[in-house]
Design a protein that fits this description.
The structure is a homodimer. Chain A is of the alpha/beta class. Chain A contains 6 helices and 11 strands. Chain A starts with a helix and ends with a strand.
Chain lengths: 189, 189
Amino acid sequence: MKALKDRIIRDGKCFEGGILKVDNFINHQMDPILMKSMAVEFVRRFASTKINKILTIEASGIAPAIMVGYLLELPVVFAKKKKPSTMENMLTTTVYSFTKDRTYDVCVSKDYLCPGDKVLFIDDFLANGNAAKGIIDLVQKAEAELVGMGFLIEKSFQHGGDYLRAQGIHVESLAIIESLENCQIKIKD
Amino acid sequence: MKALKDRIIRDGKCFEGGILKVDNFINHQMDPILMKSMAVEFVRRFASTKINKILTIEASGIAPAIMVGYLLELPVVFAKKKKPSTMENMLTTTVYSFTKDRTYDVCVSKDYLCPGDKVLFIDDFLANGNAAKGIIDLVQKAEAELVGMGFLIEKSFQHGGDYLRAQGIHVESLAIIESLENCQIKIKD
């Protein structure tokens, strides 16, 4: 998606260890107009997919997910990164964060991720795919069906996308970063 | 706002200690159509206010804030609840959570909350106002101007709204809960 690629080149910042910061328009400050355009692109790419629920993880996934849900007129569920004290009836999985070198729990209520749900997962980043694997686990535990996964930015050199596609999952990424070597952002055409 | 009040009566759940759970349409599962309608209502209520930036706190504030930002075509910044390791140039404040009986840090980058910014803060809940006080502190530290605070739901019996209005802040709440005594949801007309 050209508008996103152009924005990454303009405002993305590269750090050692394959880190791409897009705090200017996605992860801290958000550009709602671009967010809506990206949601439209997801609607187009998943046009032939039957979906009844959008799923994401807090916090940076919420903005793109709510825009997709708004366009498709579907409920949006955000999985939480800690088990809230007032929540019962939870499905939980553990995710290892490569960036932060620690594990965290991700949970979702059975009330909102239900057997038979046709779930489109939307998130900001796909890197090594650990968060995505956690989502696959949650969707399976809920006896729901994962019909697609859409990411704003995929870092293909970290191979999470390879894994997901090898599982037969319909993965769409709006910008694919092939390399951040020498802090040069190389985006797939 | 009638649609929100009706939805709270229909789907809100009351727990001991003055807790109102709206996990069905705001805090875990989100209704994007209602979210957009609430954003329209904020636009109307702050129609005569000059705003150049929307500010919120992760995670439940992001959805209403991005919708307001989308309608007004303004950038949306979400304050973070922990200091990210890759962030420099941060403003930080400490907030006491009454519900969870612990403090947490809220931070925002000086790159995105800047001197002279005219900031509309949007969040899901206003209860005792501790998070809002943290936001006031951050906005002051940034030498920005807080031009208004909009909340989806205010629990007036916890008096955060009284405090904010006494400071001369323009506060708008789309539904005001007067009491949750005996687990009866009483909403202001």
